[in-house]
Amino acid sequence: MDVNPIQITFTSGSKAEALNIASALIDSHLAACVQVSGPVTSVYRWKGQVETDEEWLCFAKTVDAKYQDAQSTILKLHSYDNPEIIAVPIVEGSPEYLKWLREETTS
């Protein structure tokens, strides 16, 4: 099983939804930590129109082997038709933190 650390970023239209998704990821050991920040203002094009919305920005720390299950959980609990879900590798970090991240997501 690959256990390379990654960060999944996603947005949500409400703090309650963001916290619900964060709790589900933590409870199922799909993420070691999820930070919820906001509100932030997002400006984007959707179906040919420029939209401006208040959103909550979430950062989930996990490992690449858990990405597909984490994505499925986010999609299942998310209210958007096409939510932003982006994963990037964590290429460096404090050794103790990365050890903790791996332990929390592989138990």
Structure explained in plain terms:
The protein is α+β, with helices and mostly antiparallel strands and about 110 residues long. It has a single domain (about 5-105), classed as Alpha-Beta Plaits, CATH 3.30.70. The chain has three helices and four strands; from the N terminus they run βαββαβα. The protein has helices at about 15-25, 65-75, 95-105, and strands at about 5-10, 35-45, 50-65, 85-90. It has a four-stranded antiparallel beta sheet with strand order 2-3-1-4. A hairpin with a 2-residue loop joins strand 2 and strand 3 (about 50-65). Helix 1 packs antiparallel against helix 2. The longest helix is centred in the first third of the chain and has 13 residues, at about 15-25. The model has no long low-confidence stretch (mean pLDDT about 95).
Strand order of the largest sheet: 2-3-1-4
- The helix/strand order is EHEEHEH
Count the beta strands. 4
Total number of domains: 1
Distance between the termini: 12 Å
CATH uppermost class: Alpha Beta
Rg over CA atoms, rounded to whole Å, is 14 Å
The proportion of strand residues reads 35-45%
Structural class: alpha+beta
Biggest sheet features: 4 strands, antiparallel
CATH topology: Alpha-Beta Plaits
Approximate helicity band: 25-40%
Average pLDDT rating: 95
User: Which ranges are low-confidence, i.e. pLDDT below 50, for 5 or more consecutive residues?
Assistant: none
The second-level CATH architecture is: 2-Layer Sandwich
Number of helices: 3
Shape, per Cα inertia axes: elongated
